[in-house]
Amino acid sequence: MVPLYGKTLDELKSIVTAEGLPSFTASQIADWLYHHHADSIDEMTNLSKKAREMLSAKYTVGLSKPERVSKSADGTKKYLFPVANNRFVEAAYIPDDDRATLCVSSQSGCKMGCLFCMTAKQGFQGNLSAGEILNQLRSIPEFKNVTNIVYMGMGEPLDNLENVLKSLEILTSKWGMGWSTKRITVSTIGLIPAMKQFLEKSNCHLAISLHTPFDDERRMLMPIQNVYPIADVVDELKKYRFSDHHRVSFEYIMFDGLNDTPRHVKELVKLLNGINCRINLIRFHPIPDSPLRTSPDERIIQFRDSLTAKGIFTTIRASRGQDIQAACGLLSTKALQEKR
Question: What residue ranges of the chain are covered by domains with CATH 1.10.150.530?
Answer without folding.
Answer: 2-60
